[in-house]
């Protein structure tokens, strides 16, 4: 199978979970998302090709190396974690620095924007976004109760915002508990979309899809 040509549109994300879920949503929501030649939008982890991604890898310098290859539209997706305002400020700084690098090199700057998970307004992460796409059920409630009990009664070591680092991984614990009970157990979130247990057409995805379409000027 021949390798697809790069798209002029690029979304830069933190990690593989973001790629898996966002790709699956757009494949369902956007007509013509994939052709034999290319995807409408390339979705790539921040940093070098060999990197493991992560918030710290989203920098102006790492993004600029990708932009110089002729991108016309560039987006960033970053988890808010415990401070949505700080995540937005970080990305605003990255965008401003990229524009400065383009000016210094005499390059036309691409259209750039960003989205902070889960909803561009609240603290949280992509798992919180994914949870809004799961139809409510007793099984989902049981997954939440089970992860809460594991933390409170059995000293499960996942962080829930009360430690020194302040990270809250409760939504990660909840959705991965729920995914462990699917067929196949433990599938990626993107695979859960294909398996029709996460609904890409849920109203919970609409605002993100609308932002995505507006940034990348998709039909």
Which helices and strands appear, and what pairs or packs with what?
Layout: E1 9-13, H1 16-29, E2 42-45, H2 60-67, E3 73-79, H3 84-105, E4 111-117, H4 126-131, H5 138-154, H6 170-180, H7 189-194, H8 206-216
Parallel strand pairs: 1-2, 1-3, 3-4
Helix pairs in contact: 2-3, 5-6
Description:
With 219 residues, the protein is α/β, with parallel strands linked by helices. It has a domain at 9-130 and 188-216: 3-Layer(aba) Sandwich (Rossmann fold), CATH 3.40.50. It has helices spanning 16-29, 60-67, 84-105, 126-131, 138-154, 170-180, 189-194, 206-216, and strands spanning 9-13, 42-45, 73-79, 111-117. Helix 2 (60-67) crosses helix 3 and helix 5 (138-154) crosses helix 6. The mean pLDDT is 91.
CATH-scheme architecture of the domain at 9-130 and 188-216: 3-Layer(aba) Sandwich
Taking all Cα atoms into account, the compactness measure Rg is 18 Å
CATH topology of the domain at 9-130 and 188-216: Rossmann fold
Tell me the fraction of residues in β-strands, as a range: 5-15%
Largest sheet: 4 strands, parallel
Detail the poorly predicted runs: none
Output the strand order for the largest sheet: 2-1-3-4
Q: Report the order of strands and helices.
A: EHEHEHEHHHHH
Number of E strands: 4
Going by helix content, strand content and strand pairing, the class is alpha/beta
Q: What is the level 1 CATH name of the domain at 9-130 and 188-216?
A: Alpha Beta
Distance between the termini: 28 Å
Q: Which of globular, elongated, flat, extended, rod-shaped describes the shape? A: globular
The mean pLDDT is: 91
- Tally of separate helices: 8
DSSP helix fraction: 40-55%
């Amino acid at each position: 199978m021949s390798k697809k040509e790069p798209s002029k549109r690029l979304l830069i994300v933190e990690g593989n979970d973001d790629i898996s879920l966002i790709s699956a949503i757009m494949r369902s929501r956007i007509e013509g998302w994939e052709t034999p030649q290319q995807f409408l939008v390339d979705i790539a982890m921040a940093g070098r090709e060999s990197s493991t991604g992560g918030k710290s890898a989203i920098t102006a310098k790492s993004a600029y190396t990708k932009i110089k290859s002729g991108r016309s539209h560039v987006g960033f997706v970053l988890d808010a974690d415990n401070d949505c305002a700080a995540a937005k400020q970080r990305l605003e700084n990255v965008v401003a620095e990229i524009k400065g690098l383009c000016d210094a090199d005499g390059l036309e700057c691409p259209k750039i924007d960003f989205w902070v998970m889960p909803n561009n307004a609240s603290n949280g992460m992509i798992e919180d976004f994914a949870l809004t796409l799961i139809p409510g059920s007793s099984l989902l409630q049981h997954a939440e109760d089970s992860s809460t009990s594991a933390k409170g009664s059995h000293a499960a070591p996942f962080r829930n915002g009360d430690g020194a680092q302040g990270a809250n991984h409760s939504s990660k614990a909840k959705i991965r508990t729920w995914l462990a009970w699917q067929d196949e157990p433990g599938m990626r979130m993107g695979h859960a979309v294909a398996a029709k247990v996460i609904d890409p057409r849920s109203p919970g995805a609409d605002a993100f899809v609308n932002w995505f379409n507006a940034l990348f000027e998709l039909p």
